Amino acid sequence: MQKRSFARKSFALFALLSVLALVAGCGDDGGNGGLSSDEKLQVLQARADIAEYCSVQESGTSSLTDRSLGIMLDGVRTLARVYRENPDAKIEIQVVKKSLTMEQLMQEQIRALRDCGRDGRQQAGVLEAALQQQQN
User: Fold this and answer.
1) The whole model's pTM is what?
2) Whether residue 13 has pLDDT greater than 50
């Protein structure tokens, strides 16, 4: 039980640091890969929400799992919307020193969701549909 508590605290700290690094390091200068500061924040938050859901979904039915499911669903919708509006955009994830295109980020999140139970696999399908819609 202590191990899960530590993992949750670590994840929460990572998510908070990601958001803080993003807020501290980005302005709306138009030369940041096509995403506004707000869109970058939304994408990073959605990414963190998906990761949180995947980390708690195995704990069974509880208020934490239910809450994280709802938040993950919002994150998936946000990612799909931002991708549809900016399919060629790039995003810098400073905390982990990554630079990804929106398509790469979507594929990363699809892979993550496939390993997150039935609801995760279903939402991976939503992101896959957004990718296919854009490619056609």
Assistant:
1) 0.74
2) no
